[in-house]
Write a structure and sequence with these properties.
3 domains, five-stranded mixed beta sheet, 482 residues, globular, 23% strand, nine-stranded mixed beta sheet, Double Stranded RNA Binding Domain
Length: 482
Amino acid sequence: MKILFKGHQFKYETEATVKLFIPGRFEFLYDAVYADGDIVCSQLRRGRENIYLFASCRVSGKRARKALKLPKEKEALCEHEICRLVFECLKKITGITPPWGLLTGIRPVKKMTALLESGLDKKQCFEALEKKYSVTQRRLELAYDTAVYQMPLLKSVKSGSISLYISIPFCPTRCSYCSFVSHSIESAKKLIPDYVRALCREIEIVGKIISDLSLSVDTIYIGGGTPTAIEASLLDIVMKALSDNIDISSVREYSVEAGRPDTMTEKKLEVIIKNGAGRISVNPQTMNDDVLKRIGRRHTAEDMINAFKLARDIGFKNINTDLITGLPGDSMESFKDTLSKIRELDPESITVHTLTLKRSAELYRENIEAFENNPAAKMTEYAADILPAAGYRPYYLYRQKNTIENLENIGFAKEGMESLYNIFIMDETQVILGAGCAASTKLIDKNGKITRIHNYKFPYEYIGRFDELMKKKNQIYEILGE
């Protein structure tokens, strides 16, 4: 597939729009006169008083064309309107109606929230988003419900409060769908003690920054990877480093992503709860043993049930479970069975992800055509119907590139049991300080400008270039010190 630009260079958004209909990689051409084969062409031409926009698409022998005239004073709308023309052409050719319409960003709920905060009512919000982005009614309802749930929680954030993310990037094995920077215990075993020492040193440095700037920690999230993949004694060292160097007395939510049931032991869970974390996430992804084997998991559905019950017995009263719709080999009936078994366990929250085909994941190398008739959309809609009826409300939502059928990931929670950290990181209105391999620090200045500081992705680099990396922390003083 070729994408041709004439008279403009709106590459990023045009490519994102094409991907709503056609997956894969593209060849980009600029101001070419002719190109054969499947092609999406968009053109901008300036006249004396008006700007003329054109889109023409040819896919599998089918063609469509659209055009629009804009007065010059509306030039700022050109990128959006060119994408709209491409969108309408491809919608006509393919017969596909993307559920989120022209919205290609990862935070669609923010647009709904902004409209509600501007004073518009539900109907007016829906009309505005449908008109500009062609969002479907079902997704408008989902975005609205999520925004309404989030808004009072966002208003609860106190000035000077931050969230803290700690990365432990190791897993027992790498799942076939995974694109995160995580490393198997077998391959990284020798690095783990040095990694923990470096991480504790960074926690100490971050703690000094928090103290120097008189910040208060609102939420803590220890993620990865799978934090419980490391030994209980090492996990204890990391969590003690947090409480020894940072005042956690004001923390409203302290989460540890226990993740894989095959890494959870009584000793590790006792370490977590003893050190002050009250929320864990146990992530089966599916309760179908055949699918678990296919995606590279070493645990069974029975292991998941036993791990969950163990966590309850130890005293955890806030447990999340993650599921993925559209996994290879999964079926609609199988997903319904998974959801039924998870509901029997009665977790406080259930996060429903949609399978994402990332190039860095092993699963991407499978035949992409095998996923064309994937039931992910039906699974996602079933979850969105059944979970609210069972007392779980959608409280946060985000999207990713290359997600099957351009769907979304949704967190559902019982009232009062939503993850504040998940809401804050998606809304981007609270500072988040990150420590550890591949962790990202998100700074927000007094004008709302966001600056990101990224730690090195790989443990050996994080360890070997630690002192160099810590120099970046001076930006925190520069931006938040104002």
